[in-house]
User: Fold these one by one.
Assistant:
Number 1:
Amino acid sequence: MLTKEQIAQRISKEVKDRYYVNLGIGIPTLVANYVPQDISVEFQSENGVLGMGPFPYEGEEDPDLINAGKQTITTLPGASFFDSAFSFGMIRSKKVDLTILGAMEVSENGDIANWKIPGKMVKGMGGAMDLVASAENIIVAMMHVNKAGESKILKKCTLPLTGVGCVKKVVTELAVMDVTPKGFKLLERAPGVSVEDIIKATEAELIIEGDIPEMQF
Amino acid sequence: MIDKRVKNAKEAIQGITDGMTLIVGGFGLSGIPENSIAELVASNISGLTCISNNAGVDDFGLGLLLQKKQIKKMIASYVGENAEFERQMLSGELEVELTPQGTLAEKCRAAQHGIPAFYTPAGYGTEVAEGKETKEFNGKMHILEYAYEADFSIVKAWKGDHAGNLIFRGTARNFNAPMAGAGKITIAEVEELVEPGELDPNQIHIPGIMVQRIFQGEKFEKRIEQRTTRKREA
């Protein structure tokens, strides 16, 4: 079973040279820590920055310099600032190559739910609806089951949707899956996790072809 | 040069009355017009509709207006940091319209640019699209969203001059830029108000025509919501 850091590490392998990447709050933010040094990548944060760098050193935090998770950040050489309307302009016009975000549920046709539990929790969709509606390459980083042990990888989402038919790949503590026109296709399993374990933790049907390799880091 | 200066926040918010709609800049607590908000809190004006990406935190930003129940309706994209907001929303005391962030920004920008409505794919197939017109473009479904109509916009900039020209700093530009000029009257509070001619016209982010009132804020706390740092290597 993967830790959150390992989920991020596995997703970092999907980040390619010359990609502009938008990272959501939580596990996706950690992906930046694992991107190989030998490729050129720029991180976009939808509150208006491209070329985001690591967190600042203590004492160098700047209230005018935050990411979409409201965390203090730094910028790297070549960075730029822009306003919120412009930021979503570049997202809608597909200039951002890869979007990585978290989810409460994902369904086998690529629907995603991550912004509301009716009557219980309403945090808002933030920029997630805009991102998933426009991005072509969307990877979801999430836990396979909820705290009650119920699968979050579903035939059909039960929570209010954030977007429809948009998720391309899901990485959880147990598995890597592609969302195909026929449903979830199991690609890799976490070290020490069997295909049976994954099937048991998954409400949706899984397409399983041949031997499923263990993830490589 | 048309002089847009007003003395202070108190003079700037003149004309804001009960039941009005305000567009308020900032993202989280970054770039919020904190002096104008403090003045609104002191004014006891109520029944407000506020359009802002977030609703502050419990004890700062628009959260202060929520605490005093001065806001009747909140239009925002993300309210996760504000427990009082969530409580008022779930109990039904506060009317809430959650709007995708890019749509919220564009509804401001549309108002700023005199465009009555636009199509966006954001929210199609979700409850955000309920009751809205839809249309297919290039094989993809979009929903029709309308420009905001608001009485006032209140924005915060780093520097400004007497003519109302504004320059922002870092990610504090955020919603402040598309919100300037979106309301019928725009109030800009700045950290530094300078003489005309001191700002390089090449560097202006928002031209003064979008701003009707400008003042230098008395005090900026510029609170940080999530202070994240890394250790210096030894």
Number 2:
Amino acid sequence: MAKILVIDDNPDLLQMMQMMLSGRGKHEVILSGDGMDGLEKAFRERPDLGIVDVMMPEMNGYEVVRQLRNDPRTKTMKIIILTARGQPIDRMAALDAGADEHMSKPVKMNELLEKIEALLGPQRITGQSHLIAVLSLRGGIGVSTIAVNLALLLQSAMPTVLVDLSPNAGHCALYLGLKPERHWDHFLKAPTVSPEVFLIKHPNGLQIMAAPPTPLVNTVITSAELQPLLQGLSAHARALVIDLPHILNETTLTCLEQASTILLVTGDDPASLQTTLTTLGVLQKYLPRIAIVVNAPVPGPRPPTEALQRMIRLPIIANLPYDHQQVTALRRNMPIVMVAPQGELSKGLQGLAQALLTPSKA
Amino acid sequence: MEKHETKITADFFGVGFRLSGTFDMRQRFLADALYDMTTAYLIVEDAYVSPIGQPAKISANHPIAIIVKSSLCFALTANRDDGLRRDQRYGSYLGLRMMPIFITVDSFEITGFLRLPGKLDPRVLLSTQTESFITLMDVKVRSTFHPDITFEGGAAIVNKTRIGFLGVQSMG
């Protein structure tokens, strides 16, 4: 179910949209009769998708789309322009204004619903819960550290499960001072058993689906295996934080398909940035759901966030500082947010968790 | 009785602009209204005007717009039937042949098909004594001065007095 805003000056069409989108599409529908009111509702309600007419008095649909794209609260929402202007040039004008799709009136409801589903991506199997995928194709820049600490912080706000999908003896359990007595490989070998049976628990309440303690040879969790795992866990938590392997294999791509937010972690050194930019090139279809986390796992001078932002062009949701206490935390098998909750890195991680808890990011 | 939409949205092209508006077909079809030589004007509702070269710019919008027929280059409809007069619609013998045709109208080049009952007679076709408009089917329109801007439609109702050049493959 998604939140959909329909902006159209035709009351009959609004009524029909309400009926069809909520009835057949099972979506939450917000209606607006003009562009100004539609913008206000979009900024306030932050819908997942907007359906915008072009020919409206006061403010036309192109202008509405441009303003939605220029506002950080709505710049990533999906937008369909639905208009009686159905010429090829009108499609180009709609896309130029910033819409994701252009459809001509009269529209067949099945086609509109299909287009909506395609734009929103596959049905999030997590339902109402948030699936946050943490990824970097460059190793050694703190993906697991971020995933572990983020999961701990989210747990203080909502039931959270941390999933370590590394096939190479992942370290999430270790970072939390836990033994991976149960892990996802157990679930794969007993798929009829509910996955929460294989969770281990941290004293603060966070539950972990650990990785197997020994590296698995030539093993990829297939989409068919992963879907029931995520589905089962999402029924058990409001947030799922997934520590992804540093590779775009079937496991990773399945998670990216399902994720509501993808945190792409990068360092600020040239090699990390190059990896990040090339990764973004490959992950084009996921761009609206990707937010960048810059991490500094080593000390030294750093480029300003503005320079990084200009280079990466996607929102940098957090720029985490180097914190020497992280070394101590790793040696103690304790997460930094527990070892030094007032430290700079912990504060950065708290800001990241807070940003994810706001409706526009979560 | 033939079932049809009570209101259609059509594009009306003048020199340098395009007006998208709604025409109420409860009284009569769009083609009947345009072909009617006893009226010089056409009333459309919810009219939005864009310059031809800037399709994303809506330079004016009005709840009611009056189009001066003699200034209109052509009207473009999405559906074929919406560009036909009542007597040209289902059951008519008109249109046994579909003849490819090319015409220029002010700053537009239009290709499409002419529905003919028999041989092409240019004197009859282009005569403005009895009818000021002709209907082309399955049309593609290119703006002469913005060749990358094109329009398509099921039918175009073209003002004969605006035609500058007409090209056909044969007179047969």
